[in-house]
Write a structure and sequence with these properties.
This is V-type proton ATPase subunit a. It comes from Nyctibius bracteatus. Its main location: membrane. The chain is of the alpha+beta class. It has 4 domains: about 220 residues, no CATH class; about 50 residues, no CATH class; about 100 residues, no CATH class; about 180 residues, no CATH class. The chain has 21 helices and 10 strands. The strands form 3 sheets. It has a 4-stranded antiparallel beta sheet, sandwiched between helices. A 4-stranded antiparallel beta sheet has the order 7-8-10-9, with helices on one face. Helix 2 runs antiparallel to helix 5. The longest helix has about 60 residues.
Length: about 725
Amino acid sequence: TPSLVAFLQQELRAAGRALGPCPESPRAPLAREALRVQEQSEQLARELREVSGNRASLRGRLRDLRQYLHVLREGQRFTSLPAPPGSPPRPRASSEREPILDPSLHRHLDRKINFVAGVIHPWRVSAFERLLWRACRGYLVASFVEMPEPMEDPATGESVTWVIFLISYWGEQIGQKIRKISDCFHCHVYPYPESEASRVDTMSGLHSQIQDLSVVLEETEQYLAQVLDKVVVVLPTWRVQVQKMKAIYLVLNQCSFDVTEKCLIAEVWCPVRDLTQVQDALRQGSYTSGSSVECFVQRVPTSESPPTLIRTNKFTAGFQSIVDAYGVASYQEVNPAPYAIITFPFIFAIMFGDVGHGLLMFLFALWMVLYENSPSLRQASNEIWQTFFEGRYLILLMGAFSIYTGFIYNECFSKATVIFPSAWSVATMANHSSWSSDYLATHPLLTLDPNVTGVFRGPYPFGIDPIWSLATNHLNFLNSFKMKMSVVLGIVHMGFGVVLGAFNHVHFHQRHRLVLELLPELVFLLALFGYLVFLIFYKWVKFSAADSLVAPSILIHFIDMFLFTSNAGNLPLYRGQVPVQMVLVVLALASVPILLLGTPLYVWCRRGTGHPTVRGHTVGGRGSHHRGGLTAGVVPKPVATGDQEPLLEGQEDGNSVNATKEDVESGGHSRDAEHKDFAEVFMHQAIHTIEFCLGCVSNTASYLRLWALSLAHAR
């Protein structure tokens, strides 16, 4: 049946018919219904094959007759007889339509003239003509002319303007060579009557045959259209039914027989919330199939970690797929996807900040959201379009945040907008400096000094002052601003991710990891890069325009911090800065061995005192609760399936059948879990330590792409 459905779909595509969606969701057919569908599909496929074959043969025959008719018509022009006596002589002109032989020479020829006529593909004409000349040494006269109308190429199906050829020759051996060469070039050779009367009779016969075949072909096309109309009506439903049947038998094939080989056993993971639904579906399947044995569900205790199920809807699916692309969270871990709904579009907007560009993106996504139920949008076959459509809510938020950051940058299509009056006064500076006409003529660039009273009247109400778009040092100002902004946001983002790990440690009752892992991670991150954020804000607050020329460099201070030195040319930001920085570096370095050895030593000590241990969990996403190992005994009959509830949840509350309170709280992690080898725990922790320490450095530098791509987008 699947092959028949594929054949019917192929025939519809070949006929240019579009297969519409299934008007309703049919249930999976029973065995007798499946046999009926198979019989009907076989009958339709048989009719389609027969009618399509007849149509193809009729088309081929009609094409040959039309080509033959054109060959005779053009050959008649080549070999026309002389005019009757008394008629005015015809002027002799060099033309392809002139007779190839002068009729007055016929009586001087002792040998009989023979003809080979046919059609050839236009791409092969030049090579065909050259080979004829070389093989026959000029003992022939060949004429070529294009066919008046294009016809279909049976090999490729394309419309081709064929070339008609007429070859006159002397001698039977030359004729054999010409026919062999014509066969090699896949020419269609047709019989060419010798007398003109025979040619006229043949053409009249061809006319009548063409008319009869055209009528038969038209009736065949109408009958084929009727068969295709039947296929269009029934095929959408059949396709859904076949897909459901294949899905059901795919699941049944994964089941195993019991010892009596009379029923099937399936070991599955099932969400706690859906257990009742599964039991109802099995009971309904047993009743529908008419089985004398009712399906049942039995809980199987297991210490294995269940798979992760995170329920999503049309809004959260795109964000969850992005998170899953980096890694699917372990069972019951914190799911970072809800936070990524805000952080991902916002970080994109930092790089794409522009009111105009963001508005275009927002309107495009809003159009997709408003017409998301349109069949033309949902069923588009273009892969790039499907990517955009599936991420329409992601694009919507990216456009909205880009509009916000565009107002922050004060850019609309890369042009500054004057929403509020500028806080800088050129008139005050001009009055204070007494700029004369001669001074202005010799100084094309003028500097506004914020230390002069009245030149700078306070910060701009929202975003960047539009006067910076006219300044020559606009790029220097934005470079400093966006570079520091990227570092601050990046470190805050990383710190938030580290803090999320605390919820995992508390949820899995591994409070020792709060001290041995979370605390060293925070100390390492904040003592180095958190201190860098502190320096940025401290410098902004402490130094003003009056003493900006003596403000020290944060970058040099940060380098000296790791070298345990001080630079006399770079003034300290505050008193006692060098000792504070030395203490922070020592704390950061001391946190590395604690992070590396803390958890393995704790596990080793607990094992020595006889306490059970379980393997730790890393930051990820907390999936929906599952109750492990269910064994369902079912008879081999199709079973209805339930729909998934569109929710995004970190945890499913409440108990259900075959699930205890301990199951839900422990998440399938038994207190009697298998002890992990100390070397394996140490290796896992070593990899985590190296990854975290190197990641803090590389990710901080990587966040500078926010500055770089924001600058590139503005340029």
